[in-house]
Design a protein that fits this description.
The complex is a heterodimer of chains A (337) and B (258).
Chain A (H helix, E strand, L loop, with lengths): L4 E5 L3 H9 L4 E6 L5 E4 L19 H4 L3 E8 L3 E4 L7 E6 L1 H15 L7 H7 E6 L22 E6 L2 E6 L2 H7 L7 E3 L27 H10 L5 H5 L6 E7 L5 E8 L20 H14 L15 H4 L8 H16 L2
Parallel strand pairs in A: 2-6, 6-7, 7-8
Antiparallel strand pairs in A: 1-9, 1-10, 2-3, 4-5, 4-12, 8-9, 11-12
Helix pairs in contact in A: 6-8
Chain B lengths: L3 E7 L5 H7 L5 H7 E5 L13 E7 L2 E3 H13 E7 L1 H5 L11 H9 L8 E5 L9 E3 L6 H13 L10 H7 L45 H10 L4 H8 L4 H13 L3
Parallel strand pairs in B: 1-2, 1-3, 3-5, 5-7
Antiparallel strand pairs in B: 4-6
Helix pairs in contact in B: 9-10
The chains are: A alpha+beta (337), B alpha/beta (258).
Chain lengths: 337, 258
């Protein structure tokens, strides 16, 4: 069924979902009892709410948990890696921005020597994407990573239901038993937010932020430094390693924990020297990572435009105007004599 | 492995921090394997201060001459002196009425002109002696206490959490009590490491772990006030655990129109 498209009529959506749930572990986007929107296990008969715009945490929670045990030490056996045997998990209802973010994380964690803790978790995930309508916090149309919104199956919302696109062998395996609900079609998929990815090029964004230094300072003044933006960002992957000894000193555990570029400690090195002591420097750094990319991925924008950083900022900060103004300033500078 | 000599003492406080240590039931046998609790009046009476200690954990604030004497004694005898819990670290709950003169407090509590003698304004341990390490929180997290003892055996001090309660809270995928529920939650100012214990139970952060490594009080105050909280309400809540707020309160009292 790979590379083929099917129509799923609206009235078949519920039996389609129930048959899908029957295949094993599944998480869907849902409004939980406290009002929070999260990817979580459906309760009996609960359908995914594909109209929800964004979950609090992106899919990195499955791939790169906030605190992850990576090594255990004992006097007898020395350091031993922790092994993961994750069961298969299907995530149903992933938006193109979150899919693009996973493509980005794959580049970080799987290129070259694959990360031993990311790889098994990534392999265990099957992804069913779905098209969506951006809201006021989204920037997928204007400013977003060029990473592809890859997945195993993608659902395009159409008037009569969904157009289901099968995009991998795994997608085929998932869809095969569901064929009674699927009617093959030659019609091309409708335009969707999915097409907004792979459009932007990072060359447009200026390397020098001196043209927007007052905006940068204003943002730094309003920033609480709490780091919620980075926690909720689907492409923030900075981490720290922490080793905790046991009470009897005979064992220890080493953890990989999320680090945060908004914190002063992020760029602190031995001797107390700090590369980014001022908050403006940290915003500059964040801008560079999100819009210019850095390290091995220099030149690849990492912001996928999901809007979580804005939606989750207690101070309501928004990096987009800074990026837009910087964009404008640089094109102005390029054209003026 | 060398056995550590440890003293656990309580000054003016509720003893909740010492209780939290005693409450680490699963770990107590392991703790006792490597440390001798040679002075711990709350757990075992009739043991006098004697000899030197590798570490002394002192709970509660400083508010009496007796407390001061004990604290100085412990300081002299101990390699590491640890402020154990919010009151020892910052004055905490015991210091929330430090903005009211002692005579007036005494009248409110005891009535008439009776003024019990001997006490003074509650103060953190560091106001009188050198403190080597803070175990923050009201009460501290069990994990923080155990991490201190594990470090003591290994010859290191734990690294204090660098996160905010706010970040811990989002990492647990909680909804924001401040932004989404309009509650006075101090997570945006408070040092993390508690895994957002209170906000995860739908209770706004009280700030018991003290302020984070680097905070933006001005912006936090602006957000609280934009959410409709009066300066009095903010400083009353903030003043429970942030000494920074007690100063702020005096500033606010000058400018508050009411």
């Amino acid at each position: 069924m790979k590379n083929r498209r099917f129509l799923l009529v609206g009235s078949d959506f519920e039996p389609f979902c129930m048959a899908l749930y029957g295949q094993g572990g599944i998480h869907i986007p849902k409004i939980c009892a406290d009002g929070g929107v999260r990817f979580a296990h459906p309760v009996e008969g609960e359908l995914p709410d594909l109209s929800l715009i964004r979950t609090i945490l992106p899919l990195k929670k499955y791939l790169f948990p906030p605190k992850d045990k990576v090594l255990s030490y004992s006097q007898d056996n020395g350091y031993q890696p922790v092994e993961y045997n994750s069961g298969k998990l299907l995530i149903f209802g992933v938006h193109p921005c979150d899919l693009a973010a996973i493509s980005y994380l794959d580049k970080i964690f799987l290129n070259g020597e694959p990360d031993a803790f990311y790889l098994p978790r990534r392999k265990s995930l099957a992804l069913i994407g779905v098209s969506c309508m951006p809201d006021k916090y989204c920037s997928c149309g204007d400013i977003a990573s060029p990473m592809p919104a890859d997945c195993d199956i993608f659902l395009y919302k159409i008037e009569t239901g969904y157009m289901v696109s099968c995009e991998s062998d795994e997608g085929s395996a998932i869809l095969s038993p569901l064929s009674p609900f699927l009617h093959e079609t030659d019609i091309l998929p409708p335009e969707s937010t999915r097409d907004n990815f792979s459009l932007n090029s990072v060359e447009k964004f200026p390397d020098d932020l001196s043209g927007v230094s007052s905006e940068l300072q204003e943002m730094a003044r309003s920033c609480l430094g709490c780091g919620a933006c980075s926690i909720c960002c689907p492409t923030c992957y900075c981490f720290d390693l922490l080793e905790l000894p046991s009470l009897n000193g005979e064992r220890a555990e080493r953890f990989r924990i999320w680090d945060n570029c908004l914190y002063q400690s992020h760029a602190e090195v031995a001797g107390g020297y700090n590369f980014r002591k001022a908050r403006t420097e940290r915003f500059d750094y964040r801008y560079r990572h999100k819009y210019l990319g850095f390290g091995q991925l220099q030149g690849i924008m990492s912001c996928v435009g999901c809007g979580r950083c804005i939606a989750n900022c207690p101070a309501g900060l928004d990096l987009r105007p800074l990026a837009c103004k910087a964009l404008k300033e640089s094109s102005h500078a390029a054209t003026s004599p | 492995m060398k056995r550590e000599r440890v003293a656990i003492a309580g000054l003016t406080g509720c003893s909740g921090c010492q209780l939290t240590l005693l409450d680490c039931e699963d770990e107590l046998p392991l703790l006792l394997k490597n440390a001798d609790f040679d002075y711990f009046p709350m757990a075992s009476s009739g043991i006098a201060l004697k000899g030197e200690y590798d570490a002394a954990l002192v709970e509660g604030c400083l508010s009496t001459q007796e407390g001061l004497k004990l604290l100085r004694n412990l300081r002299e005898k101990s390699r590491l002196l640890v402020a154990f819990g919010a009151c020892a670290v910052s004055g905490g709950v015991t210091a929330i009425r430090n903005d009211v003169p002692r005579e007036e407090l005494s009248r409110i509590v005891y009535g008439g002109d009776a003024v019990p003698g001997g006490g003074f304004e509650p103060a953190p341990l560091a106001s009188a002696v050198k403190v080597d390490f803070d175990i923050t929180g009201c009460p501290p997290e069990k994990a923080d206490i155990l991490e201190f003892f594990a470090g003591l055996s290994a010859g290191v001090l734990p690294i204090p959490a660098r996160t905010f309660v706010c970040a811990d809270c989002r990492a647990r995928e909680n909804i924001c009590l401040l932004a989404e529920k309009g509650e006075l939650c101090l997570g945006v100012l408070t040092r993390g490491g508690c895994n957002a214990r209170c906000p995860s139970m739908n209770v706004p952060c009280e700030g018991c772990r003290g302020v984070a490594e680097e905070t933006n009080f001005a912006e936090a105050m602006a957000i609280f006030s934009a959410n409709g909280f009066s300066a009095d309400r903010i400083s009353e809540k903030g003043g429970r655990f942030f000494r920074e707020f007690l100063h702020e309160k005096k500033e606010y009292q000058k400018t508050d129109p009411d």
